[in-house]
Design goal:
single chain; mainly beta; globular; four-stranded mixed beta sheet; 78 residues; 8 strands; four-stranded antiparallel beta sheet
Length: 78
């Protein structure tokens, strides 16, 4: 999933192997419950907590609102 924590901030650099259709995983990070889905068409980050989440996706800072979802078309996030 390309997940790391650097300087206290969640960093995501997801990669989809060519033979896979997609994958998803869930994590808890500093009071946030996060669902990450990686597919051929898009990457989505769901925030199921009551406060917004700021993180980096491919080095660019992103924010997902409380109970929100961020969906980024494949190939546009890098």
């Amino acid at each position: 999933g390309g997940m790391r924590v650097y300087d206290g901030q969640l960093q995501l650099n997801p990669f989809l192997p060519s033979k896979w259709k997609g994958y998803s995983f869930q994590i808890r990070f500093r009071g946030h419950f996060i669902i990450i889905r990686v597919g051929k068409d898009a990457i989505s980050i769901g925030n199921k907590s009551e406060k917004e989440l700021t993180f980096k996706l491919f080095g660019k800072e992103q924010t997902v609102s409380a109970q929100g979802e961020l969906k980024i078309p494949a190939g546009t996030a890098k």
